[in-house]
Design a protein that fits this description.
It contains five helices and five strands; from the N terminus they run βαβαβαβαβα. A five-stranded parallel β-sheet has the order 2-1-3-4-5, sandwiched between helices. Strand 3, helix 3 and strand 4 form a beta-alpha-beta unit. The chain is globular, with a radius of gyration of 13 Å. The relative contact order is 0.20. This is Response regulator. Keywords: Phosphoprotein. InterPro entries: CheY-like_superfamily (IPR011006), Sig_transdc_resp-reg_receiver (IPR001789), TCS_response_regulator (IPR052893).
């Protein structure tokens, strides 16, 4: 079981659904939901907070999309080996989006919404 999973998505229904799946399947002890990428980046940068085990990141969000989040997150990390693993959780099945995302060192997976039980269980191995 993962200690703390961060879910970043601008859609409230997707946030609620993903949190329910993670909790019901015993994937995460705690789930923190963020509706903006900027708020999630600020939380990740706050070293006074408990460590995040995994980030589930939507790709298509207003203001700062998933690509901008990945660039900013990797840019703020002095030690890439210490980055929290990121799994893209997106509605985009496009192979071009998948390739762009998985080119980032922190991205450990790409899942098309909604999060299935099998995908949820696979998160345990992706974060380890």
């Amino acid at each position: 079981m993962l200690e703390l999973v961060m879910v970043v998505d601008d859609n409230d229904a997707d946030l609620v659904y993903t949190e329910v799946v993670l909790r019901a399947r015993g994937i995460a002890r705690q789930v923190s939901c963020y509706d903006t990428a900027a708020a999630a980046l600020a939380r990740l940068a706050d070293t006074r907070q408990p460590p995040v085990s995994l980030v589930l990141l939507d790709l298509n969000m207003p203001e700062m999309d998933g690509f901008a989040f990945l660039r900013a997150y990797e840019g703020q990390q002095a030690h890439p080996e210490r980055m929290v693993p990121v799994v893209m959780l997106t509605s985009s099945p496009e192979s071009s989006d998948r390739l762009r995302c998985t080119a980032h060192v922190c991205v450990q997976g790409y899942v098309v919404k909604p999060l299935s039980d099998d995908d949820a269980r696979r998160l345990l191995t992706l974060a380890g």
